[in-house]
Amino acid sequence: MAENTPLRIHHLRPAPGANKSKVRKGRGEASKGKTAGRGTKGTHARTTNTPGFEGGNVPLQRRLPKLKGFSNAMFKTTYQVVNLDRLGELFPEGGDVTIEALIARGAVRKKQPVKVLGTGDISVALNVQAHAFSASAKEKIAAAGGSVSEL
């Protein structure tokens, strides 16, 4: 290169010895000597393992169940849970508790069934409408002078 020629990106080259050619293992004695670059003994010195071999662990295809079995997940009903103590906080004066009132106060979300559970106590009479109730919730609501109606 002449001294007044600027250095360009296409003039750059790797340093000598920086790029070595890939070792072609297992291609006979001419490539890397007696063991062809594979060392002595062991799994990698011989042919490769079968696909799915996990080093002696039980393979994935044997760990998973052979048959499908029964799963009702597609038709499973998942309830939003509201406890009695939460109802007592949201409705301290008592009155009617509907799904719309619970949605308006941020206790549940729209378009999902609601189940009332009996955790906690209530002291006011509530007329509760929900999709499902636990037995203890029904007892505690009735004991407080309220009523229960399922949708």
Automatic annotation (TrEMBL):
<feature type="domain" description="Large ribosomal subunit protein uL15/eL18">
    <location>
        <begin position="81"/>
        <end position="148"/>
    </location>
</feature>
<dbReference type="GO" id="GO:0006412">
    <property type="term" value="P:translation"/>
</dbReference>
<keyword id="KW-0687">Ribonucleoprotein</keyword>
<keyword id="KW-0699">rRNA-binding</keyword>
<keyword id="KW-0689">Ribosomal protein</keyword>
<dbReference type="InterPro" id="IPR036227">
    <property type="entry name" value="Ribosomal_uL15/eL18_sf"/>
</dbReference>
<dbReference type="InterPro" id="IPR005749">
    <property type="entry name" value="Ribosomal_uL15_bac-type"/>
</dbReference>
<feature type="region of interest" description="Disordered">
    <location>
        <begin position="1"/>
        <end position="60"/>
    </location>
</feature>
<protein>
    <recommendedName>
        <fullName>Large ribosomal subunit protein uL15</fullName>
    </recommendedName>
</protein>
<dbReference type="GO" id="GO:0019843">
    <property type="term" value="F:rRNA binding"/>
</dbReference>
<comment type="function">
    <text>Binds to the 23S rRNA.</text>
</comment>
<dbReference type="InterPro" id="IPR001196">
    <property type="entry name" value="Ribosomal_uL15_CS"/>
</dbReference>
<dbReference type="Pfam" id="PF00828">
    <property type="entry name" value="Ribosomal_L27A"/>
</dbReference>
<comment type="similarity">
    <text>Belongs to the universal ribosomal protein uL15 family.</text>
</comment>
<dbReference type="GO" id="GO:0022625">
    <property type="term" value="C:cytosolic large ribosomal subunit"/>
</dbReference>
<dbReference type="InterPro" id="IPR030878">
    <property type="entry name" value="Ribosomal_uL15"/>
</dbReference>
<dbReference type="InterPro" id="IPR021131">
    <property type="entry name" value="Ribosomal_uL15/eL18"/>
</dbReference>
<comment type="subunit">
    <text>Part of the 50S ribosomal subunit.</text>
</comment>
<dbReference type="GO" id="GO:0003735">
    <property type="term" value="F:structural constituent of ribosome"/>
</dbReference>
<keyword id="KW-0694">RNA-binding</keyword>
